[in-house]
Amino acid sequence: MLKNVKRIGLVIGILATLLLAACGGSDGDTKDDANTSGDPQYGKEMNYTITGIEPGAGVFKASETAVEEYGLEGWEVQASSSGAMATALGEAYDKEEPIIVTGWSPHWKFAKYDLKYLDDPKGVFGEEETIHTMVRKGLEDDMPEAYQVLDNFSWEAEDLEAVMLEVSSGTDPKEAAENWIKENEEKVAEWVDGVDEVDGDKIELVYVEWDTEVGSTNVVATVLEDLGYDVTITPLDNAVMWQAVATGEADGMVAAWLPGTHGDLFEQYKDDLVDLGGNLVGAKIGLVVPAYMDIDSIEDLDTK
């Protein structure tokens, strides 16, 4: 009788072991089956969408190229605006949800959030960029004082990000520019060194409505106003901005990203305007994600 009980117990134990194995009862097997690739699968959660800005921007075009070059089948770069992109990023960040945006720096978002660029081993987004100042032909003869200020204008990424962060917190761009100028009198003095004041001469600066260019254009406009200029600043689309300076409809801009972002527009209009060189070095474009996302390279993105 005792031998029969032992045999029955042994059979039950074997059956239980086989049943657990068939159902994935082993902890080790469960972990292996959960993610066989070893990489997080963010695509489906984000509906395979990269949150972009204006479709005419270089970073938007480069992002579309990246989708092709990296074989990101099923992915789409969704056009919006720089403001809408920043809003979407903030909402996702607050909820710790995954998001990929077309990004650039300097930008206040890097001061407000913990972000990172995805590695770009194929070099689709190029190397670091420089923001240039461009003016119309004839400005040096017509407005030598303004020409000199625009030629002298140069600052660091930290300067621009300070202005942008204040604007993003609700301060009017003009007021933020005035605050930065008051706190950086020595730097501004270098821009206006030897420049005479004027009496209400009219000048128009154009810019694209990116946070960087809103900040820089308001600062330069305020410096020119302090010298006596009647300054108009006009937001335009990328291509129209370049065209306005090249045709002389506007006097200048401090918003030309080279060699990548505005490279095609520079090639189109370079013979019809004057390049005063870089006003900020070390700018960058690429795909940006929150640091809490467990991914480091574009090539690690999962596809449909």
Describe this structure in words.
With 304 residues, this protein is α/β, with parallel strands linked by helices. Helices cover 44% and strands 19% of the residues. The strands form three sheets. Strands 3, 4, 5, 8 and 9 form a five-stranded antiparallel β-sheet that branches. Strands 1-2 form a two-stranded parallel ribbon. A two-stranded parallel ribbon has the order 6-7. The chain is globular. It starts with a helix and ends in a 14-residue tail after the last strand.
- By oligomeric state, this entry counts as single chain
Number of helices: 13
C-alpha geometry: globular
Proportion in helices: 40-55%
Q: What radius of gyration results from the CA coordinates?
A: 28 Å
Short key terms for the protein model shown above:
single chain, 304 residues, alpha/beta, 5-stranded antiparallel sheet, two-stranded parallel ribbon, 13 helices, 9 strands, globular
Give the topology, please.
Elements: H1 2-22, H2 27-34, E1 49-51, H3 58-69, E2 76-78, H4 82-94, E3 101-105, H5 109-112, E4 115-117, E5 129-136, H6 139-142, H7 144-152, H8 157-168, H9 173-183, H10 185-191, E6 202-207, H11 211-226, E7 230-235, H12 238-246, E8 252-258, H13 263-269, E9 273-290
Parallel strand pairs: 1-2, 6-7
Antiparallel strand pairs: 3-9, 4-9, 5-8, 5-9
Helix pairs in contact: 8-9, 8-11, 9-11
